[in-house]
Amino acid sequence: MPDINHKTYIKVPLEEVYKTVSTSQGWNAWFTDDTSLEINSDGTGEIRLRWTNFGSDNVNIEDGGKIIEATPNKKFVFQWSPGEQNSTVTFKLESYKDGTLVVLNETGYTNSEKDLRACIGCAVGWGEALTLLKIYLEYGIVYKQDL
Question: Residue limits of the Activator of Hsp90 ATPase homologue 1/2-like C-terminal domain (predicted)?
Answer without folding.
Answer: 11-138
